[in-house]
Every structure is written in C-alpha cells, then in structure tokens.
Amino acid sequence: MATCSSCWVLKQCLIVGFLFVIMISSIQPVNGCFTSIFSFGDSLTDTGNLLEISLLESNKLPPSAFPPNGRTFFHHPSGRRCDGRLVIDFLAEALGIPFLRPSYTTKVGRLQKFQKGMNFAVAGATALNSSFLQENGIHNRSTNISLGDELNSFKHLLPSLCSSSADCKKLLRNSLIVMGVIGGNDYNHAFREKNNEAARKFVPLVVHTIASAIHVRNTNFNGKIFPRILTEAFPMQELIELGAVTFLVPGNFPIGCSPDLLTNYQGSNKDKYDPLTGCLTWLNQFSQHHNELLRTELEKLRNRHPDINIVYADYYNIAMRFYHSPKQFGFKETLKACCGIGGLYNYNSSRSCGYPPLKSSCNDPSSYISWDGIHYTEAANKWLANVVFEDLMKSTTCVPY
C-alpha cells in the first residue's frame, strides 16, 4: 500500500484498507433480514426485463442478449448489460435471496416463483415520462418505460403475490425496496445530444420523482409549478401506505468518468479534466448536484415518516475510490471499456457490446472498471455491493426474524 504522507491521504488509505477487509472476509448471507426484494430502475439493475420485452413485442433483441455479455459468471448472456452480476445480484446473495427474476416473465410463468421478490427495472428506463422528455427534445431510443410505469406494474401484480391486504402489508414490511439506479438516462440522453441545458433542468424533477413522485396534476415543488410529468404517477408515498418500510435509494455514479460521455465530450481543453483521474470535472459535479438534491429530498421524506428506513447508497463516493486508487482495487484500466472498439476510451456508440463485430472483449474484465463504456464490470459491481450491503446493515439494524 502506498505511503500516506498527509492526513487526507491517510484517511483514504484507511478507507481502502477497510474495504479490503470487507472483500477478503466474504460476507455470509444474512438470511431472514428480508424475505423479498423488489427493485426498480434502469440497465444498471435490469436482470432481463428489456430482453423479455423485446422477445414479446419486437424482433430486435437488445445487446444484453448477445455474448460476450455474461461471460464471467453466467457464461452466457443473461439479459444483463455486464460480464456477470450486477449490484442487485450481489445484494440478493448477501441477503440469502435468489437472483431476482425479471417481472415481464410473469406473463409466461407462475407468480409463485416471485415470492422472494421481483425486478421491475428496465434497461433504458427514465425517471420522467417519455412524452415529457420528447417535448423537451430528448428522444429515448431504448424504451418508453419510466419509473412510474414500473411502479404501476408492481401495483398491478402485487395482489397476485398475496391473498389479502394484510398479507400484502406483511410481505412489503419484510421486503427491501430498491429504488434505482434511475434518472441516469434522463440526463445521459440529453448529454449525448449535447443538450446540457435540458439535463440541468431535469435534475429537480428527476430527484422529486425518485423521492416522492410527481403527480398527474400540476405539482408545487420548491415554490415552482411544474407541468404534468407522469401519466399515471405511483409515488413512493403509496408504497409506504401499502406497507413498505425499508428503501434503498442509490445516488448517481461519477458520470464524468464514463467512457461514453468522455468520448462524446472529448476535447483538447485540459482544464475540464481532473488531472488525477482523467474524468470530466463538470460532469462529475453534475452527478454531485443530483446526489445533493436527492439526499435533501430523502431527508424530508424521513422527517415525514420517522418509522420508515430510507438508506441512501452513495455510489458516487464509493466509485470515485476506484479512480483515485485503481491498483488498490485490482483495476488496471479506469477509463477504457473492456468490451468496446476504437478511440481513446475504447468506445463507439454505434457499436454496442454484443452486436457484431463486438462479440469479444478484453482478456480480463476484472481489471477494468467499465464493461461496455456505460455499465460497470462484475468486479466493480462487487466492490459497490459490499460497501452498500455494510451500510444497509448498519442503517437498518437488521435483526433476522
């Protein structure tokens, strides 16, 4: 380990050392803390929903349907945009719960299989309604599904998982609700079109949607009246009324370190880049702004519901440790995609990982932070999940029942 020559560096070294203890001493499953997990979000959490939707509704399969996706753990494509497991997979393992099945498989399967939980996250999903985004010049080429749609699907299926209102309350009381990651696509679609003004305008709307949802009627938020955002809003407030008591809400990642946005905004102005990491400073500041507003909204929600556990997952600061001390985490490549092609960051938006000719990837995905230029490798996800799991256990004082 590098010599610590200042108090700040010493603190960082101690943090890294603590994280290594977590990783080396493998976490034993905490059976009984939660009987189920229900998750919502986008491709960072999707365990196969977009693939199922594509199979049911169109002839065009997503990149997650093709190798080398899934090569590390599943050894075949699993519907995940990753070489292996996602953070949600590691959390399920740590809690002694099977990997979450995608909710769209309920159309062809038995709901009894979903008693341990269900995943409603869809790759490409946004926090805000797609029609609202289109009105603001943002076009989602992946899907028209929003967080409101995912939550309404959950509400529709919930009665099939429990026999009565009391049983549903008991099910949700003993469940972990993972609200995200969501919102990144709202911003990234804007950034990819270099509509930075729209991305900035979306931040308070996205945050408010995640924290308490935006209703069909005009909503007063911080003294401003916002137009209709969701067609059928299903707020977290209603999840609480249905019986949910424990929420895990992730913040945004350091998007300034993402190969896709680094490629999109690649330029010669060195002042825009962090000299220590090579990440785009202004994009990371954008992520921090989102996270600051989100934490403020979650605190308001806690004050209104003191008996509810709302755990914030600090993905930004956990992930930034990878970029500041990559060797400590086993990473050799920080800003290049493992499965990609061309350019400084090994990323080309028109040649997604999985589609020809990208049927192969780097020799050792565990030495890369980024899998395909947008999503993390299993190795990075494992680090994230271990820290998030520790925070979850401390914040909920989980006692197996």
UniProtKB/TrEMBL annotation:
GO terms for molecular function: hydrolase activity, acting on ester bonds. The keyword Glycoprotein applies. Pfam families: Lipase_GDSL. Signal peptide: none annotated. Keywords: Glycoprotein, Hydrolase, Signal. InterPro entries: GDSL (IPR001087), SGNH_hydro_sf (IPR036514), SGNH_plant_lipase-like (IPR035669). It comes from the Eukaryota. Gene3D superfamilies: SGNH hydrolase (3.40.50.1110). Belongs to the 'GDSL' lipolytic enzyme family. PANTHER family: OS05G0506800 PROTEIN (PTHR22835:SF683), ZINC FINGER FYVE DOMAIN CONTAINING PROTEIN (PTHR22835). This is SGNH hydrolase-type esterase domain-containing protein. The lineage of its organism: Eukaryota, Viridiplantae, Streptophyta, Embryophyta, Tracheophyta.
